[in-house]
From TrEMBL, chain A:
The keyword Repressor is annotated on this UniProt entry: no
Transmembrane intervals: 12-32, 39-57, 63-82, 116-138, 144-163, 195-214, 245-268, 280-306, 318-340
A Pfam family of this chain: BPD_transp_2
Lineage, top ranks: Bacteria, Bacillati, Actinomycetota, Actinomycetes, Pseudonocardiales
Keywords carried by this UniProt record: Cell membrane, Membrane, Transmembrane, Transmembrane helix
InterPro entries, A to Z: ABC_transp_permease, ABC_transptr_urea_perm_UrtC, LivM-like
Name of the protein described by the UniProt record: Urea ABC transporter permease subunit UrtC
Gene this protein is translated from: urtC
Signal peptide coordinates: none
CDD domains membership: TM_PBP1_LivM_like
Organism listed in the record: Lentzea rhizosphaerae
Amino acid sequence: MNLKSFLTNRWAVAAGFAVAAVLLLVVAPALLSSFRLGLLGKYLCYAMVAVGIGLAWGRGGMLVLGQGVFFGLGAYIMAMHLKLADAPPSTGVPDFMALISSDGVPVWWEPFRSGVVTLIAIVVVPTAVAVLLGLATFRRRVRGAYFAILSQALAAAFAILLIGNPRSTGGSTGLNNFKGFFGFSLRDPANRMTLYVIAVVALLAMVAVARQLMVSRYGELLVACRDAEERVRFLGYDPAAIKTFAYAVAAVMAGVAGALFVPIVGIVSPNDVGIVPSIGLLIGVAIGGRTTLLGPVLGAIAVAWAETSLSERFPSGWTYAQGLLFMLVVAFLPGGLASLRPIVRGWRERLRPSHTADSAPVPSLSGSSR
Amino acid sequence: MEILLSQLFNGLSGGSILLLAALGLALTFGQMGVINMAHGEFIMAGAYTAFVVQNLLGDAGLSLLVSLPAAFVVGGLLGLALEALLLRRMYHRPLDTLLVTFGVSLVLQQLARDVFGTAGVDVAAPEWLSGPVEVFGVAFPKTRLFILVLAIVAVVVLSALLAFTPLGRRIRATVQNRSLAESSGISTRRTDRITFFVGSGLAGVAGVALTLMGSISSNLGTNYIVDAFLVVVVGGVGQIKGAVIAAFVLGVAQSWIEYSTTASIAKVVVLALIVAFLQARPQGIFVVRTRSLV
Amino acid sequence: MNISLARRLVAVATVSAMGLLVGCGARVSDDPSTGAAGAGCVDTSGSSVKIGFLNSRSGTMAISENTVYNSLKLAADQINAAGGVAGKQLAIVAEDGASEPTTFAEKAEKLIRGDCVAAVFGGWTSSSRKAMLPVFESNNALLFYPVQYEGLESSKNIFYTGATTNQQIVPALDYLKEKGAKSLFLVGSDYVFPQTANKIIKAYAKANGIEVKGEEYAPLGHTDFSTIVSKVKAADADAVFNTLNGDSNVAFFKEYKNAGLTADAMPVLSVSIAEEEVGGIGVGNIVGQPVAWNYYQTIDSAQNKKFVADFKAAYGPTKVTSDPMEAAYTSLYLWKGMVEKAKSFAVADIQKAAGGVTFDAPEGKVTVNGENHHIAKTALIGKIGQDGLIHTDWTSGKPIEPDPYLKSYPWATGLSG
């Protein structure tokens, strides 16, 4: 069964979702300690970002190096709300602000006292930024490399701004020490379990959305934009709008992931949003197979898990491993591990002499194979 | 007036450092389309070359003069190795080169930590470069003057190389139309390799210059790489003069904004200006007109 | 068709999640303040006990934190060779904080809940400490933090064995005032330690008639100091108070020297440059400049001579020892003293027994303050010599009682918010 039929066969899809839900919601909590389950929750947040990257980069050909910005927007918006909710009712000023200055809460924090505004902002702010930036760059037909460098510079500027304003953003420490989540104590294991469940649900929902987009007519157009943007334009479509939409969807996914990251991990700092983490998010997508639906998710979870367990054993080992993965996977296996499947099938069929005549064509290794 | 003059000089000096870091990129990114994130680590390799040379020779003045060509060769060889082992097969996928070279830069950084230790090392500046030169009551640090001169020399030599030598003609021909160049008998493989050697070698030279300014540690390159790319993007791909103007404009803008605000704000403001500028001129200051659609 | 299927899946899952959330979670209001997960899983039944070392072994802070790890390891080896703590050998679990606050928080949780260590030693930047603080408080575990910091903090779950502000910054200001400085220029990195330190400095300056002629912050990792040095030069203050961090110091001092400024004309007093950093800056660029700490390798005492000799024997004759390394070494011995006084590894018993525990440290005798969990230390102002080591120029004479909120200083009222 190839990817195309997997994507369109609704029973296969339903079965796939059911298996994933059982694995994540029943098997994982039964096997893992509460600490490891919390880590898995964190990996799921990275996986959400990866779904968006798979869409924008794998399908849309936009090398999004600044997803940390959207992740950070979602995370900081959520963190601001949690800090304000934790603040002593007498002053309404979060602990870290009271420590460093006596000016009170900045004006632009005030809206996030409201939980509803926060939830809306987590979706709207990343969308707005992505649409603005996307239209600005894609309409001017900024070349792919320019877009990559600009989005990278944006991530750098975002981190500098966060670090440079410790009175309002917590500076290089970031925001942490959250007591509650919409009124529920974060110290209660039952509530932490609930957060994990929410993360699982959010991830599955995002995969469902991504699948829907991929099999739709829009998905075809997006791939067409990636492979031959000029032809799409000549056919009367607006590639800028098509690409911007995918970019915005990816941004929202990253924003929601960030918002869930905050209560699950308990801290967000500029180190989670700058250039290096932004690029780090790409490696899982590249390994899993950027053009596939599940490749980015599995890749992101696998890479995050490998990072934790490797760094527990060899402190500097992870840097080498990460670097080598980037070099080898992107240079020699641009389709990611997902592209090994047809190759392996090809070998298997070649080994069977009777099938040599109709052996499946080995798809090219370039990113456009699917 | 003194402030005005010294800030102008600080800006030009900052620009010359940016220019040295970006000049090699203007070749490899601008001419070949390779987004080499490891360029920063080639700069770092140049700086460590200066450190090694100084430990071997001892004398600060002599070792500075020896380091410059030595670092050029070290940077160039690293670039050649990168081109031959990885990038050669990726010219049709320019965006992917960014990720591959990012991996290379992670490995090189960790390698530097394991070889030279995590602590920064020091390269002493020669006696004839210490202290300032006083002109009209304004103090110009000699090291900064040296780097300014070095950057100008590098630009002049590189421009002359591109304009007047057979090699330069081959490089320009390959950039403007690869298949036509090939059918005219130019070995584009060889040209690619030489271009990459020169571009990466310039990174090494930049590294030696940076030892006069700051610390030499494994993260030296990461401090400059994004700025250097922005210089090339603003300057316009394919031309040295674009990079020169962009570097000096950005340097002066950074130091003037920094003087009236803070260093953090200056960085963000300069970046916002770049984004706005690219809205007006998405191809940068100078555009090489070609008939291709992409 | 497919859309409705996906929607149904999402809807069912969302509703069930909501049900779970509303159903059994505790509200913030009925959460006991001590924390629910404070039971602890430390195993002290065997012949050994686990402790955790949490230092950045990779990333930008590895430069400094590897040295702390080394001296913690040295202390643990010495303690084990001498019979261990309360008769139990120390088993070390080392983790890498990777110079990122998020990683520090994650690894701290792993050490406490996964490895069940009796105490954790480590952390360097204020960011790493602030990231770990809620983890230690909510799990009711112990952290020993070995670096000077900006004060205005005291947690019952943290022991601070580096200096707080009244043991480093305030004596440094006293020193500058004594030397006749009438004006200051403040240069620092853009993060929490320099900003809080400068707040204290400005309050002190105001009360003591010292003019602050400027205050400049550079982003972490900033390397072009031409503009900042121009401002410093133009302001022409009597001295510069430097709270820059890491690599920025190198660029700053090279620029400072090249602009023609000297330690005689305008001294730069630094609070983050120790023996370990001098080599990277280059002795020639910084010789004669004053620094403020509580320990130098050159301290002339039997304890220090042994510490320096042991350290060089373990890690090589070219290695130097510095204040945070000594504070880390001391922290392990202080914990040993607390455990043996309490006759227990339990957090509550150690907290009770901590006050008054002393150790003849390389820096001199130190005493734990049971009230705020800091230790009394002697302040030393040193000057960087041609040999790259730091030589004491001025001393507070006796250990200064820690006062993290500066409550005993009238000029500091209002600082702690």
